[in-house]
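Record 1 of the preview.
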Amino acid sequence: MAGSLKGKWAVVTGASSGLGVDFARELASRGANVVLVARRKDRLEQVADELRSKHGAEVEVVALDLSSSDAPLELHRRMKDGGRDIEILVNNAGFGIFGLVLEIPFERVEQMLDLDIAALVHLSRLFGIDMVARGSGYVLQVASIGAYQASPTYASYAAAKSFVLHFGEAFDYELSGTGVSCTVLSPGMTETEFLDVSGQSPTWFQRLVMMPSSKVASIGIRAMLRRRRSIIPGVLNSVMAWFIRFMPRRFTHWVAWRTMKTPEIEQARTPSTRG
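->
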């Protein structure tokens, strides 16, 4: 079949729900064997059973909290000890936090940055070295449409995803000629647990642009296999990211605030905060 990955091993992080599950399904449907990585072992086992029964894939479950500083090394060691040559790395693990910068506990922000940035870079380096040595491989980084602008109410998250976008594109350029590539997927609002975890009730705008997780995952895997450097799924998302480049930056901040704010967050904003 087109895009067959028969017998290749893929690591998918954040594989217990949402996009992570759909990335795993997409890869398994193309013949790949999959290593599922997340904190919730029971959820991982359910996904593993589905992939085995539906696609006949070999599946390994690894329960790890990748926000821990030694977790990427532990995951890499397990793959080496098990004789797994990882051909595909999907860096999907991550979460966002909704709220005002001054009101979000720093410990929560630090955990997010450790997972969304530090773990992603560490895993990219560890598995990237192996891929380059073999002369083949794919890395898929999951950023966000928020990477393209500053986003009040998601200030730290959007900044973290901007890092992922620029890191991933630069990484792909550095990999030129090695047989290894890095693709950055920047989804908009997707039907996942993102809002539940971030602590936000969906706004009218978010409901309007919401995309199915399975469709976003399929677009991402296809782009990765075509070795595209960067892709934004969804026509409306792509158009918005393109137009942002021509807007005054102050105006984009206002637009982000208007489309993301909830009544609760607007009430919490101090009167002295500038618009």
